Amino acid sequence: MIASAPAKIILVGEHAVVYGYPAIAAPVSSLRATATITTQDHRSGLLIEASDINKVLPIVRANASVNDALTQTVQLVLSHFGLPAPNATIQLASGIPMASGLGSGAAVTAALGRAVAQAMHQTLHDDDLNRIVYEVEKLHHGTPSGIDNTVIVYEKPVYFIRDEPLRLLDIGSSLHLVIGDTGQPSLTKKAVGDVRRLHDAEPATIQPILAQIGSVVENARETLAQGDISALGALMNANHRLLQKLTVSSDALERLVAAALDGGAYGAKLSGGGRGGNMIALVAPDSVDHVRKALLEAGASNTYVTEVR
Ligand code: PMV
Description:
- The chain is an alpha+beta fold.
- The chain has helices at 69-81, 104-119, 126-141, 147-154, 188-201, 203-226, 229-245, 251-262, 288-297; strands at residues 2-12, 23-39, 46-50, 55-60, 88-94, 158-160, 167-168, 175-181, 267-271, 278-283, 302-308.
- The strands form two sheets. Strands 1, 2, 3, 4, 5, 6 and 7 form a seven-stranded mixed beta sheet that branches. A four-stranded antiparallel beta sheet has the order 9-10-8-11.
- Helix 2 packs across helix 3 (126-141), helix 3 runs antiparallel to helix 4 and helix 6 (203-226) packs antiparallel against helix 7.
- The structure holds (3R)-3-hydroxy-3-methyl-5-(phosphonooxy)pentanoic acid (PMV).
- (3R)-3-hydroxy-3-methyl-5-(phosphonooxy)pentanoic acid is lined by residues 10, 14-15, 17-18, 101, 103, 144-145, 147-148, 188, 192, 272-273.
């Protein structure tokens, strides 16, 4: 038995979404975290093996300590069902680069949550899983807006506003995106904390920038519904310039964004927490290969392609 969850990109609106403005995000279904379940009759308890992070968790029992994200996830699923840990081994694997704005943490949590439920022969509804993944995100990432868990659990493009019900997105024409990885891990918690300090120190400068990002997202929502790809590209560029002002870009991100635009992308911007991690470029289907090559030549450690529809 295998459970899984995808990576995600933020098309527009990161950082401002923490302050209540809308953002648009989409799953990257080709990049996934997986959890393989083997039922063990001869042992009592649950063993989690996370080879990517060189971790084997001790068998989880009812009152294990909960300072670890994986243990915390298991505990939340067990208490949701009010059941003891199943006798099983769950092997976690993730093809999603860590600390790079692609939501690897939330994807691993979602895959593990699904796997624990499957090992107990229970059905874990997406609404409940979404709450559980958000709890784990809160413990380990400070003040998450909730966008990562939402797009990853439902695996659909979303128009997201913090603390508001899920809204799926209306997409008029499918989007081809090339994702470029700077290869430089960056902790979202740090970038979000720095933006918060900047906001508190200079509210008169920062608040209007956040509001402008909010307007970019509203316009992007309309252009997406109309299928106007070139207008959407321009909005992504505007969003990137506003993110620069929030100090969350980096030299490597700037190089990749410039290379994508020179290579013919409609628009390009950092995606996620920034300061490193990944950027995205909106491209015509026949320029995917060209933009990929341009990104690799500009120093990308890897590129991924995804279609949003
Ligand atoms: O996890 P990341 O790096 O994709 O960042 C999430 C987006 C932020 O807006 C920067 C933070 C948040 O909680 O929404």
